[in-house]
Design brief:
The chain has 144 residues and is α+β, with helices and mostly antiparallel strands. It is 28% helix and 44% strand. A seven-stranded antiparallel β-sheet has the order 1-7-6-5-4-3-2.
Length: 144
């Protein structure tokens, strides 16, 4: 399993960022390749994702730790992905989003296609970083 850790600072209060993370239906607006997303009860989400082989649905089991503003998730089936999303306050008007993720690069390559080996790891890192930047932009545009 490969591990990835990324973070981004957001010019918005932590509670606003935390609330946006719970709007699963809006994930397609900032996550590359996500066509549709929906919450399935309080502890599941479904993402319909565009892959190199068409569209594939992913189910994820979620565990929320509100007191720590952390969501832990794990996909059901392939590819095997698991991780945490955390929000922490930097000050009244700024926060930081951190993602930690574990994944099998071969499983990602088998599902999505694309490069192999270290190039796949770099592609995953770039995608996660881009998604965080899109998320930050979405939250910051919603000021007011």
């Amino acid at each position: 399993m490969s591990r990835l850790q990324e973070h981004i600072d957001v010019s918005a209060p932590a509670q606003k960022v935390w609330d946006q993370l719970h709007r699963v239906e809006e994930y397609s607006s900032f996550m590359d390749g996500v066509q549709r997303a929906s919450a399935r009860g309080g502890d599941r989400a479904r993402l319909d994702v565009r892959t190199g082989r068409g569209e594939q649905a992913f189910e994820a089991v979620l565990s929320e730790h509100s007191d720590e503003q952390t969501i832990t998730w794990q996909t059901q089936g392939s590819p095997e992905l698991q991780g945490t999303l955390s929000v922490r306050s930097l000050d009244r008007d700024h926060s930081q989003v951190q993602i930690r993720m574990e994944y099998d690069p071969q499983g990602i390559q088998d599902t999505f296609g694309g490069p192999k080996g270290m190039a796949q790891v770099h592609a995953v890192e770039r995608t996660v970083r881009d998604d965080l930047e899109h998320f930050r932009d979405l939250v910051e545009r919603q000021k007011g």
